Automatic annotation (TrEMBL):
Nucleotide-binding is among the record's keywords: no
Entry-linked Pfam families: STAS, Sulfate_transp
Gene Ontology terms: cellular component: membrane
Residues spanning the membrane: 48-67, 74-94, 100-121, 133-152, 172-195, 202-220, 250-270, 326-342, 386-410
InterPro entries per the UniProt record, alphabetical: SLC26A/SulP_dom (IPR011547), SLC26A/SulP_fam (IPR001902), STAS_dom (IPR002645), STAS_dom_sf (IPR036513)
Domain named STAS: residues: 438-553
Name of the protein this chain belongs to: Sulfate permease
UniProt keyword terms in alphabetical order: Membrane, Transmembrane, Transmembrane helix
Localization in the cell: Membrane
CDD domains per UniProt: STAS_SulP_like_sulfate_transporter
Length: 563
């Protein structure tokens, strides 16, 4: 088989795998109607020509659709990465200059290289450190942040900052300068969009709003009434070129690119995982990194800026009815048609309508029902979700992602640091062994303590293991002859914990108390041998089942009584 035929078959398999239905195609049309104006706004954040925003949803979108794994993730221009590289590059070169545009594309090419390295090291596992709780909080924070920023376009104001708190203060300060007609048009657009999403969720309501607003803006000359419009946009497909800045420029771009790549991986993984959870699907985060690498390479070669998995645009796609990357391919095709044949009409689109479209999507990203469910079932996790959302709103998306990962890890470590510890004791009515919380004065049966430690043993929780056994033995109503440790939940032990366990065993042995380990898994047994616990405990006191350990404990106690 020829190489060309092999490539053709591979592409056919990828497209077939991601293909959808007519609803996906209609969703792609609706997505294009809402997102084409939005990416024009992201071009402003990136301080690039407006047409570069359209370029981000052309070849980069197709590249991710072919190489990525997620059925829902929309990879295009994004406010977080646009703010990162624009603020960094503005300190090196004047924004808007030819040199600036070359360095912007060079950053995208560097991102592609870093993402390829990330795929080789399988860094997609970062998504595993994002719990569903913090994902709900993350999306809610993004929704609040985006919604507040869109209020500027909806009210005819101009924001001088990307910081949400500063923007909020600016809205109050600029209350008297708000443009009444823009507010009325934006409010009407919101009503239509929200009602359409509720009553006809799969209809291209956004497309109708965009078309009608362009016609009204052109026919009624809304600009004459101080309603801001997008302005002229250069058409045509992008020219292919390879950005080749100097060596010193490349060194200066490395920290900027590294910051972008971490945000790209974390934000894309967070967004992809969040929407996969909604539809009970599984995504391959490492395959998504390959898609992101291809998308950023396509962006660099077509003269545009860094692309990223966008929570806002992905939410738009899902809310429009998209269930596969077919919608994104239709989106790219519509973008090509706009660039080739219809760049002129877009200039009449009122910015307030654009703001209303994005605002409605942002509102729907705040999942009140999910937050309420978390609050009812786990107040502690609800607080973590709120902290994540507050961080995104007050500091930024990238910091919100870092906090989300840190909080997820903190919650896990907290449970491991203070695990449940139990003592098995016979239930009064049935005589069957039941687990109870460890407390002074508790004893499983005369002469025997059956103790269960419900986590791996490591440096932070090993003292709890020692303290519990010491407390149970010292406060037992009858002298303790044997301690049976149920090891069913212990799969690993580190160096520090092993030292503590050996010390406990030696102290109990000196007091004439026998210790038996039951339900010892093979991998835990290997750790015990490596840390010399087996030598101190004795192989004869290690059992694969708990009932055999209990039988041995009863024999030891009965023998002690006979003596």
């Amino acid at each position: 088989m020829s190489p060309l035929l092999g490539i053709k078959n591979w592409l056919g398999q990828r497209i077939t795998k991601k293909s959808g239905s007519w609803s996906d195609m209609l969703a792609g049309l609706s997505l294009a109607s809402m997102n084409i104006p939005q990416v024009l706004g992201y071009a402003r954040i990136a301080e690039m020509p407006a047409v570069c925003g359209l370029y981000t949803v052309l070849f980069p979108l197709v590249a991710f659709a072919l190489f990525g794994s997620s059925r829902h993730l929309v990879v295009a221009a994004d406010s977080a990465t646009a703010a990162i590289f624009s603020s960094g590059l503005s300190e090196i070169v004047s924004p808007g200059s030819a040199k600036y545009m070359e360095l912007v594309s060079a950053v995208a090419l560097l991102n592609a290289g870093f993402l390829l390295v990330a795929r080789l090291f399988r860094l997609g596992f970062l998504a595993d450190f994002l719990s569903r709780t913090v994902l709900v909080g993350f999306l809610a924070g993004v929704g609040v942040q985006v919604g507040l920023s869109m209020l500027y376009d909806m009210t005819g104001l101009v924001s001088s900052s990307h910081n949400t708190l500063v923007q909020t203060i600016g809205l109050f300060q600029g209350f008297g300068q708000m443009q009444g007609l823009s507010m009325a048009i934006a409010s009407l657009s919101c009503v239509v969009l929200l009602a359409g999403a509720r009553q006809k969720p799969h209809w291209p309501v956004g497309l109708c709003v965009v078309v009608m607003s362009i016609l009204c803006s052109w026919g009624l000359d809304l600009q004459h009434y101080d309603v801001a419009i997008l302005g002229s946009i250069r058409g045509g497909l992008p020219a292919f070129s390879i950005p080749l800045p100097g060596w010193h420029d490349m060194l200066a771009l490395l920290p900027i690119s590294a910051s972008c790549v971490f945000v790209i991986i974390a934000q894309s993984a967070a967004t992809s995982r969040a929407f996969a959870n909604i539809f009970h699907e599984h995504d391959d985060e490492n395959a998504d990194i390959v898609g992101l690498c291809a998308a950023n390479a396509a962006a660099a070669l077509t003269g545009t800026f860094t692309v990223n998995g966008s929570p806002t645009q992905t939410a738009m796609a899902v809310q429009a009815g998209a269930r596969s990357q077919t919608a994104q391919l239709v989106f790219a095709a519509v973008t090509a048609c706009v660039l080739l044949f219809f760049p002129a009409p877009l200039q009449y689109l009122p910015r307030c309508v654009l703001g209303a479209i994005v605002f409605c999507v942002a509102v729907r990203m705040i999942d009140i029902q999910a937050l309420n469910g978390i609050r009812q079932e786990s107040p502690g996790e609800f607080r973590l979700a709120l902290v994540t959302a507050a961080t995104v709103v007050s500091v930024g998306v990238e910091q919100g992602i870092f906090i989300a990962i840190a909080l997820s890890l903190f919650r896990h470590v907290r449970h491991s640091y203070m695990p449940h510890t139990l003592i098995m004791a016979p239930e009064a009515s049935t005589g069957m062994l039941e687990a109870e919380a460890v407390a002074p004065g508790e004893q499983s049966m005369p002469g025997i303590i059956i103790y269960r430690f419900c986590a791996d043993l490591f440096y932070a929780n090993c003292n709890l293991f020692a303290d519990d056994i010491t407390t149970l033995i010292s406060s037992a109503p009858d002298p303790v002859k044997c301690v049976v440790v149920d090891c069913s939940a212990i799969t690993d032990i580190d160096y520090s914990a092993a030292q503590v366990v050996r010390d406990v065993l030696q102290r109990l042995h000196a007091r004439g108390i026998t210790v038996l380990f039951g339900r010892v898994a093979p991998f835990f047994l290997k750790d015990m041998e490596r840390h010399h616990i087996t030598a101190v405990l004795g192989k004869e006191n290690i059992y694969m089942q708990l009932h055999t350990a209990l039988a041995s404990a009863h024999k030891l106690c009965d023998g002690a009584k006979a003596l």
